[in-house]
Design goal:
The structure is a homodimer. The first copy, chain A, has twelve helices and 14 strands. In chain A, the strands form three sheets. Chain A has a ten-stranded mixed sheet, with helices on both faces. Chain A has a two-stranded antiparallel ribbon with strand order 6-7. A two-stranded parallel sheet of chain A has the order 13-14. Helices cover 40% and strands 22% of the residues of chain A. The first copy, chain A, has two domains: 199 residues, Isopropylmalate Dehydrogenase; 129 residues, Isopropylmalate Dehydrogenase. In chain A, helix 1 crosses helix 10 and helix 8 packs parallel to helix 9. By secondary structure, chain A is α/β, with parallel strands linked by helices. Chains A and B meet through strand 7, helix 7, helix 8 and helix 9 of A and strand 7, helix 7, helix 8 and helix 9 of B. Bound molecules: 3-isopropylmalic acid (2 copies). One 3-isopropylmalic acid sits at the interface of chains A and B. Chains A, B: Keywords: Amino-acid biosynthesis, Branched-chain amino acid biosynthesis, Cytoplasm, Leucine biosynthesis, Magnesium, Manganese, Metal-binding, NAD, Oxidoreductase.
Chain lengths: 357, 357
């Protein structure tokens, strides 16, 4: 039985970091006899440049057939002034929605070796380990109607729709409760139920689900308070579940608490556990092509892929151990560099992980 | 010419903290011969309990006539399971929208005396001074249609509408550009223009306005990145302008960077500079009635009221100087207490400010 991994380097630093992850995947494929086959495709700005479409049919077809996808990043100033339908981001959003990758898992974990990189006091973040479960194919990202219309008085109005159905809420809720069961058994659902009707329904369904997970402690928090509590005392959280837009904001905030967003992976899964894996950081066009980007978030995303979509726990753990090993050796790319460590390039970092395997 | 200030204590710690601010206002009224007349009214849960309406007609009428309003806080678990229309928050939202208080100014300032209260490293936050300008009467808070509907397949869907017209964006934009002119001349507009059409219009109008304010440097940032940058390097910001929902989240996050949200005031203004002033913190039902809440944010809000709505700069500065003085004396309520300082109650703190006047 051969399984297919689709590599989508994308834009900016995407190609550089995916190349390093690819090296690791090839090695691990051999070492553990995983029988993985690799394909690659175009997405985002790279696809726009070649095909005038941020998500070419060919890429979508390959994605549907793949067992898992490893994506670098999309977007950059080059395409920023294009109309909404022709933006690199549409490639990413199209993959998420076409493959129904509704469950976005974003861990915010502090690597002890990198504790000093955080802008927070060590006692506030040491040992930090939060899992954010973000709904990824609904909410205001995909709600209809949307657009810009002309009002009777002649002025324009922009509008979007924030909507969730019971079943959309229930399926992401289950993922979050199950994640909590496997971790610290604490789930915090984030909403704005004092203002937004859609999140009143969200809260109701979460309370409903709670009955099926008696071992998980469920709490609710308004999104403004959650944004504060993440700064004040992030270690109070175990698993956080929230909608697409709030999840976008809070997961980036949580990631930055660690100070080393260049280390954080993410997984986007559908109900068949088919998944797309990407680093949390973006395409970083300012450092693209310089060979200094940190490939570790992508390499750790590849490990997450082996674990969640390909059921290869041992291979995943081997990659994670190798990453820990290079950190212990004091090797650092520019973004996580600190005194007394050795600064390495993107490729040198990839090679070091390879050697540590 | 007598001017009227309406006091709305509200819920939770509201009555305790507004009582202290009232003492200060009475004293300053005499000292500077301000000819202020005071009224008071019910709002939020307190109003619900008495009149079954979170914003009684009597309160709304007094509010319309007042030159300025000082509000404590609204809400608490007692009223949390009421239907949306009967919630304390509707009292607050009703005041904002009926008086068209579209411009919410939320400073996030670090008091040097309280620097150690922050969960961030001192070098990251020392000297922090950000002004967040949040649109307060539009966006998803007030967008129509909204509610919960039954779909054809029988399941329910919750929905809200995120909408802004050009003129709504333009008027908040002007407030922000003008605030930037009076400060560090840097304005960062926060949106999600890579996903949401309504914020594409937002960005376009901000770019338009920029031409009228050649001395202000305008930048744009996606909201997820802004949530990160506030944690990573908050001092990069001078003035931030954003919509109602993003402003709710980011202003609370920014406030918490200081570690002393019990110190932060806010102003909500309409185009006649009529304003409602409130502390940034909420009603804190867990400590209500214990006499330990920090009244300083409300007292500083009263100073802001004198400055922005009543044009009494000297009186405002006198209050602010008195607050600085009590901090220098080492007096601290529980929330900002630290070693070597003297812990005081809500009333003792109010009395100390009074004495320092
Ligand atoms: C690139 C953008 C469309 C995307 C999002 O908003 O979801 C990104 O910020 C993310 O979080 O993956
Ligand atoms: C109480 C609530 C409705 C309110 C808001 O969301 O605007 C509060 O969080 C605030 O920021 O003033």
């Amino acid at each position: 039985m051969s399984r297919t991994v689709l590599l989508l380097p994308g834009d900016g630093i995407g190609p550089e970091i995916v190349a390093e992850a690819e090296k690791i995947l090839h090695a691990i494929n051999k070492k553990f006899d995983l029988k993985l086959a690799f394909e690659s495709g175009l997405v985002g700005g790279a696809a726009l440049d070649e095909t005038d479409n941020p998500l070419p049919d060919d890429t979508l077809e390959k994605a549907r057939k793949a067992d898992a996808i490893l994506l670098g990043a999309v977007g950059g100033p080059k395409w920023d002034s294009l109309p909404m339908a022709k933006r690199p981001e549409k490639g990413l959003l199209g993959l998420r929605s076409n493959l129904e990758l509704f469950a976005n898992l974003r861990p915010a974990v502090l690597y002890p070796q990198l504790a000093s990189a955080s802008s927070l006091k060590p006692e506030v973040v040491s040992g930090l380990d939060i899992m954010i479960v973000r709904e990824l194919t609904g909410g205001i990202y995909f709600g209809q109607p949307r657009g810009v219309r002309e009002l009777e008085n002649g002025e324009r109005q922009g509008y979007n729709t924030y909507a969730y159905t019971e079943s959309e809420i229930r399926r992401i809720g289950r993922v979050a409760f199950e994640a909590a069961q496997q971790r610290g058994k604490k789930l915090c659902s984030v909403d704005k139920a004092n203002v937004l009707e859609v999140t009143v329904l969200w809260r109701e369904i979460m309370n409903d689900l709670k009955r099926e997970y008696p071992d998980v402690a469920l709490s609710h928090m308004y999104v403004d308070n959650a944004a504060m509590q993440l700064v004040r005392a992030p270690k109070q959280f175990d698993v956080i579940v929230t909608g697409n837009m709030f999840g976008d904001i809070l997961s980036d905030e949580a990631a930055m608490l660690t100070g080393s967003i260049g280390m954080l992976p993410s997984a986007s899964l559908n109900s068949e556990k088919q998944g797309m894996y990407e680093p949390c950081h973006g395409s970083a066009p300012d450092i693209a092509g310089k060979g200094i980007a940190n490939p570790l978030a992508t390499i750790i995303s590849a490990a997450m892929m082996l674990r969640y979509s390909l059921d290869e726990e041992k291979a995943a753990a081997a990659i994670e151990a190798a990453v820990n090993n290079v950190l212990d050796q004091g090797l650092r790319t520019a973004d996580i560099m600190s005194e007394g460590c050795t600064r390495v390039s993107t490729r040198e970092m990839g090679d070091a992980v390879l050697a540590a395997l």
